[in-house]
Amino acid sequence: MRRTPESELTQTLSAPTASRTGFRPDIQALRAVAILAVVLNHLWPTRLTGGYVGVDVFFVISGFLITSHLVREATASGRIALASFYARRVRRLLPAALLVLAVSAVGTLVFLPYPRWTRAGAEIMASAGYVENWYLSAASVDYSAINDQATVAQHYWSLSVEEQFYLIWPLLLLAAWWWAAKRTWPPRVVAVIALSIVIVTGIIASGLATAGMPSPAYFVTYARAWEFGIGGLLALLPFGRLSRLAANVLAVVGFAAIAVAATAFGPTTPFPGVLALVPALGTAAVIAAGTATSRLWHSVLSSRRPVQWLGDVSYSLYLWHWPLIVLVPFAVGTTLSTVTKVAILCVALVLAWLTYRLVERPGQRWPLVAASNRRTFVAMLAGMGAVVLAGGALMVAGNLRAAADVPPVSVTIEECVGPQAMSSPEECPNRFAPASETVMGARNSYFHVPSECVARPDLLPFGSRTATVECDFSAGEAHPTTVWLVGDSHAEQWKGAVFDLARQKHWSVLASFGGGCPVIDAPFIGFREPAPAADQERCRAWSTAVREAVVQQKPDYVLTSSAGRVQLVDDGTGRPQGMQFTDGLEWTWTAWADAGVTVVALGGVPFNGEVRSPDCVLVNAGDPLACAASRGEAQPRDPYLDAAAQANSPGIRAFDADPYFCDADNCYAVIGGVVVYYDADHLNLDYVRRLAPPLAQAMGIDSR
Q: 504-555 pLDDT, tens per residue?
């Protein structure tokens, strides 16, 4: 017989894989373990802290099965029909995925407040196109994105990674095959070498990305592709006959590795990176053990019907559980309790079973679609287009609502309303009563810019971004008081009070904000975690420019703040972080005070997202006291107040707003009928504007 590339591929790949492509109850059990880990982690994140590694288990399984299928096809036909392969993937995965996205879009519109519609619509569109992981990766780079709440489609990031693998891997396999054929090399050897290179470089890239850009690295494809590669390598390598004892030990070690990762890892674990090898190699060990023999110790449990059933419905369960977690609190009007979480799990299981029976399985055989690959792809484009339109409609609706929802020109300061209720507890017995408005929309946005402000891209830019606005409230005065407001978004959240005072006092205001960046005489290294070198340099350059500009321009007042409790600096001394940060602030302010500037340190406000669900007020609208948080947890020591006290200079003042948020025991999320926070990390504009009188007092000016 004439030697052809097709026959060579068949001869070199068929032997080691033919015995591996039948039904594998151990792999179905792995699916059950993976989905159970993910769902329990999402429902009880503080209990199964590393359950997110279930996604990595799925990735290795997919790599093994898809490679096995491709090789089996080559064995049977001597070729790989790419169109048929992609069509099968479409019929297998898209019907259920698009159904859940469509239902989730409707659920978002019905149950979630309108400020969530725009982001949800964008992510639904990205998920329909299987690029959600790249959308989230890009969003995670933006400092402000840490305050965005999860949407109904966020979990589609892993499905996007998987679909991208399905798209690329057959092409890479064919490329290795043709390259080998031209050089008369065994294709399997070339494929193994190529895949080994992908795995090794992928692990290195994942480790570097996780260390340098931890938030975006979690989602990007190249940080996870090597996990599929490990599964693919299992399908390509010839296995010798393992003894039953060796296979059993290998399987036990594999399941143990997955269990260790699921229980020992947590939200602060650098992941994926090198540590992703633990669940990935554990999964590979279980698969390899099952390749050698079919009946193992774990089969007593893993082959039982409930376990296999859970593996059957794992895909649909993954699709449904997350939208329920996001939507149910708003639908029932309460924070998720243990009973509610159990109910969500039960409903998700029922929906998964129905979807598996009525959509997943029939979708692979629907005559109208399965009759030809062309029909499959036409149906795919139609379905994806419909979901994209639904997501786009959500975005448009959200933007239209936001455009009509603008802050009032002024607010009336009233006794017992907002922070004023904390000043007179005896006269305000209902100071923690429900808020009249709980949805935080555009009218509540701390970053609102009034018409008096003009962007100045040429002045104190933050890298390539415009960071500075000039606001003229002088009403034509020849020599108005000049006030600067500088820092990160924790300074920006005070704009409402500053601008109201500026309008009243006819000030000229300059506001410059660097995302996540303090204005400090100390080397910035990160926000909550070490930042990439480029971000560190951008922050340091902007901070230096602001510090020097204050000394040169000598405004009358500089108000400053930042998220100093979670920002990191390193001056090389090895001293405690708090000491370094406090000293850096004091040195900065002393230089300003020496130049004749009055400095006002805006003390940090109590934590929100760190101590309660950011949605707490929304889902407990009738009982805002359910959102009260312990003062000890919500209001830790603040470096801005410490630095002002340490400076002990008449030119350096401090505004400690703590009494307007907390009493001796607790800090609150609704005070005087007004919601305190706009999002997980910033104040409600309406609440801030009501703090203008005490801010004026701290500045030493008359607030009337």
A: 999 999 999 999 999 999 999 998 888 888 899 999 999 999 999 999 999 9
**Residue 508 φ then ψ, to 5°:** -110, 125
CA angle 198-204-210, nearest 5°?
Answer: 125
Rounded Cα distance between 403 and 511, Å, is 23
Single-letter amino acid code for the residue at 486: V
Q: Could you tell me which residues come within 8 angstroms of residue 249 by beta carbon, excluding any fewer than 6 positions away?
A: none
Reduce the secondary structure of 265-322 to three states and give it as a string: CCCCCCCCCHHHHHHHHHHHHHHHHHHHCCCCCCHHHHCCHHHHHHHHCHHHHHHHHH
Distance CA 495, CA 685 (A): 8
For range 408-434, the mean pLDDT:
91
How many Cβ atoms sit within 10 Å of the Cβ of residue 436? 9
pTM of the prediction?
A: 0.85
Asked if 601 contacts 655 with a C-beta cutoff of 8 angstroms, the reply is yes
- Please give the Cα distance from 581 to 522 (Å, whole number): 7
pLDDT digits (tens, 9 = 90+) for 348-362: 999 999 999 999 999
What three-state secondary structure class fits 121?
helix
Give the integer Cα–Cα distance in Å for 651 and 452. 29
Give the dihedral of Cα atoms 511, 516, 517, 523; nearest 10 deg.
Answer: 180
Q: Which of 431, 491, 426 is nearest to 695 (CA)?
A: 491
**pLDDT, tens digit, 9 for 90 and up, residues 610-647:** 999 889 999 999 999 999 999 999 999 999 999 999 99
**Quick one: pLDDT band at residue 2, thresholds 50, 70, 90?**
very low
DSSP category for residue 471: E
Q: Give the helix/strand (H/E) hosting 652.
A: strand 652-655
Distance CA 109, CA 105 (A): 6
Query: In this structure, are residues 146 and 413 in contact, taking their beta carbons and an 8 Å threshold?
Result: no
- Give the residue from 545, 576, 700 showing the smallest Cα distance to 642: 576
Residue 509 host element (H or E): strand 508-513
Amino acid letter at 4? T
What's the token pair of residue 702? 């008359």
Alpha helices in 53-186 (DSSP H): 54-77, 82-111, 117-128, 132-141, 156-182
Amino acid of residue 194: A
Cis peptide leading into residue 272 (ω within 30°): yes
Give the number of other Cβ atoms within 10 Å of residue 665's Cβ: 9
Nearest to 599 by CA among 643, 661, 544, 539: 643
Task: Determine how β-strand 524-527 pairs with β-strand 529-530.
Answer: antiparallel
Residue 483 forms beta bridges with which residues? 509, 557
DSSP string, 522-571: S-EEEESEEPPHHHHHHHHHHHHHHHHHHHHH--SEEEEE--TTTEEE--
**Which of 313, 282, 165 has its CA nearest to residue 232?**
165
- Over the stretch 6-37, which tens digit does the pLDDT of each residue have? 333 333 333 333 334 467 899 999 999 999 99
CB distance 265 to 38 below 8 Å: no
How many C-beta atoms lie closer than 10 Å to residue 690's C-beta? 26
